[in-house]
Specification:
- By secondary structure, the chain is an all-alpha fold.
- It contains four helices and no strands.
- The longest helix is centred in the N-terminal third of the chain and has 28 residues.
- The radius of gyration is 18 Å and the shape is elongated.
Length: 150
């Protein structure tokens, strides 16, 4: 029989934090998409796209808005409305953010904002793991006991 350890920080706190993080990242992605599409990359020179599949920042803006922003918005909606698929979509959103940042660094170079958003994507994944009970030691020093199987 598997013993589950409850987290000293409530799952309500974790899920509320995750929802806030998802909403912030969705709004940031939508804002970045608007800047990329309407304002030609928001100051990122088009020379940075030389040698890539992208001739302009429009397609990149659409990917940022639809894929990154859309998954974050869907995950936040799912968590608020208590959908069974919400944590899966939140994990996809976290991975989408991390993949976006890796790709962005490879294409245009490094900025401190990329470290911030990489960290936020990683935090999303950590919160998903904690809510699933996969990483119970995050909220509990005795969390490793949840992994004991007789």
């Amino acid at each position: 029989m598997r013993t589950l350890v409850s987290l000293p920080i409530s799952s309500k706190t974790f899920s509320g934090g995750l929802v806030a993080l998802l909403i912030f990242n969705a709004l940031s992605a939508f804002g970045g998409a608007v800047l990329a599409i309407a304002f030609g990359g928001a100051g990122v020179p088009l020379e940075h796209l030389a040698g890539t599949w992208f001739a302009s920042s429009v397609v990149l803006g659409l990917i940022l808005g639809i894929v990154v922003g859309g998954t974050h918005a869907a995950a936040a909606f799912g968590l608020v409305t208590r959908r069974p698929w919400a944590l899966l979509v939140a994990a996809v959103a976290g991975f989408a953010m991390i993949i976006w940042i890796f790709t962005e660094v490879a294409m245009i170079g490094y900025s401190w904002l990329q470290s911030l958003y990489f960290g936020l994507g990683t935090l999303e994944l950590i919160l998903v793991l904690a809510l699933l009970g996969i990483a119970p030691s995050i909220g509990s020093p005795a969390g490793h006991e949840a992994l004991k199987v007789p």
